[in-house]
Amino acid sequence: MTLQILINGILKGGLYGLMALGMSLIWGVMNIINIAHGAFIMIGAYITFLLFNFTGIDPFVSLIFSSSIMFLIGYTIQRGIINLVIRAEIFITLILAFGIEIFINNAALMIFSADVRKVKVSYGASNFNMFGVTIPYVRLIAFLLAIAITIILFFFMTRTKSGRAIRATSQDLDGAVLSGVRVSRIYAITFGIGTALAGAAGTLWAIIFPLSPTMGGSLTLKSFVVTIIGGLGTMLGPVIGGLTLGIVESFGTNWFGTTFESLISFSILVIILIFRPKGILGKGKE
Amino acid sequence: MAFLEIENLNSGYGDVNVLSDISLSIEKGEIIALVGSNGAGKSTLLKTISGLLTPTSGKIIFNGKDITGISPDKIIRDKIIHIPEGRKLFSDMSIEENLLMGAYSRKDKSIMKDLDNTYLLFPILEERRKQKAGSLSGGEQQMLALGKGLMGDPDLLLIDEMSLGLAPVIVDDLISIIKDLNASGKTIFIVEQDVRLALENSNFAYILDTGSITLKGKSEELIKNPDIKKAYLGM
């Protein structure tokens, strides 16, 4: 039983990690706490839902569509809106992101209504048994994809010219400008990637969990908690933070009941902030 | 017309004007020095040339082209590279990644050849190429900053406060490298608080005092000038 709870936690934790990856990237590079992150995850989830319902595209395949569409949305929002206030204090960008979140949520409520929906794939309930542990296929595939996307991002950031420029810009802005980096373009790419990651997380979320236009708020909070737990400035941070939250939540809800889910995640947040204010792996500023 | 021609330049930060009516010219193939005390506006001038700051009036002409007020990435592609004070390296990235960032705006095929040349010039950087830039000593970081600047394949190199905080032996090494670079055809504009060092190692110099150029001349003559001796060389 304990093993089953642990595996459940790890599988969910991988998805939490992917959810937080985009938020952590945007936060680390641009110092923006993107309150609208959960709303982007929600849009990604609805893209998958719509593609599945109207065209029958397999939700796992729709990952390509949700992430590319969300990249374009993120790139445009950064280029057109956020770049205007990028030199402002963190509080200003926070309010702007909050405004974007309210806009997206209300637009989604108008378009989709508040009904809770589900992507009903034929293989949704299939699972297999290993060492007495039941593992649903969709959760395992979602977990593996989340890890694979994290690894792809890692290679992008360390092995490509654009990835290097993103890291350089986050480490020394003037140094990057004097190397010929066009910062507004790099910021737009970074925001695009962060949003694409949110879209991908939304797709994987929609395969496993029900969706509604208002799901974004709690997902923003979860991404926030995971980002803080893992620590800013490393790509492994969100993975570690996600797994930590997933496992603790899995055991916690098993012991105390699902009504305590939020309480549990915020308790870990507080504990981490007390004992490791920079997060488990973080090297950001205090 | 000179290689770099600056005419009646006014520049500063926001509403604060730091430089007033600066005019200077740099001939191709020279080492030019800009000296002056702390707060005179030396770094402000370099930042304005490299596009980090936009001048309020005046003109900057490089290689016959008006580059006044254009963006830093375009100025870099025109082959002016600015090595800033405090080096501004990417401390969490490896030495090699820092050097490659130096070539960020280049699209030609000889980047890897220039990387080899940079390693030839600074063997210590090749030895530690995988190491993070932040783990280097001050002297090594300045070498990396110089190497990173060279990776941009500059025609004009602007070097701000290269000697600051470094041991004299290391400064000597860096100066001899700069002289070699100059001999190989690069024009170099050095900005220094160490007036003696700058005058001993340049062809021509400008003295900047509270935002204006108060004196200019051949470095070998300026170093004998009694006013300069008194004000800057402590004699």
What's this entry about, in short?
The complex is a heterodimer of chains A (286) and B (235). Chain A has 286 residues and is mostly helical.
Helical amount of chain B: 25-40%
Q: Report the structural category of chain B.
A: alpha/beta
Widest β-sheet, arrangement of strands of chain A: 1-2
**How many β strands of chain A by DSSP?**
2
CATH topology name of chain B:
Rossmann fold
Count of discrete structural domains of chain A? 1
Mean pLDDT of chain B: 94
> What is the count of helical runs of chain A?
11
Task: Describe the secondary-structure layout.
The complex is a heterodimer of chains A (286) and B (235).
Chain A: H1 2-30, H2 37-55, H3 62-80, H4 90-112, E1 127-130, E2 133-136, H5 137-159, H6 161-171, H7 173-177, H8 183-208, H9 216-230, H10 236-256, H11 261-275
Helix pairs in contact in A: 1-5, 1-8, 1-9, 1-10, 2-3, 2-4, 2-8, 2-9, 3-8, 5-6, 5-8, 6-8, 9-10, 9-11, 10-11
Chain B: E1 4-13, E2 16-26, E3 31-35, H1 42-49, E4 57-62, E5 65-66, H2 72-77, E6 80-83, H3 95-102, H4 111-121, H5 123-127, H6 138-150, E7 156-160, H7 168-183, E8 187-192, H8 195-200, E9 204-209, E10 212-218, H9 219-222, H10 226-232
Helix pairs in contact in B: 3-6
Feature tags:
heterodimer; A: 286 residues; mainly alpha; 11 helices; B: 235 residues; alpha/beta; Rossmann fold; six-stranded mixed beta sheet; four-stranded antiparallel beta sheet; 36% helix; globular
Walk me through what this model shows.
The complex is a heterodimer of chains A (286) and B (235). Chain A has helices at residues 2-30, 37-55, 62-80, 90-112, 137-159, 161-171, 173-177, 183-208, 216-230, 236-256, 261-275; strands at 127-130, 133-136. Chain A is mostly helical and 286 residues long. Chain A has one domain. In chain A, strand 1 and strand 2 (133-136) form a beta hairpin. In chain A, helix 3 packs antiparallel against helix 8 (183-208) and helix 6 (161-171) packs across helix 8. Chain A is globular. The model of chain A has no long low-confidence stretch (mean pLDDT 92). With 235 residues, chain B is α/β, with parallel strands linked by helices. Chain B has a single domain, classed as 3-Layer(aba) Sandwich (Rossmann fold), CATH 3.40.50.300. Chain B is globular. The termini of chain B are far apart. The A-B interface holds A 161, 164-165, 167-168, 171-172, 174-182, 233, 283 and B 50, 52, 71-73, 76-77, 81-82, 84, 87-93, 97, 100-102, 104-105, 148, 152.
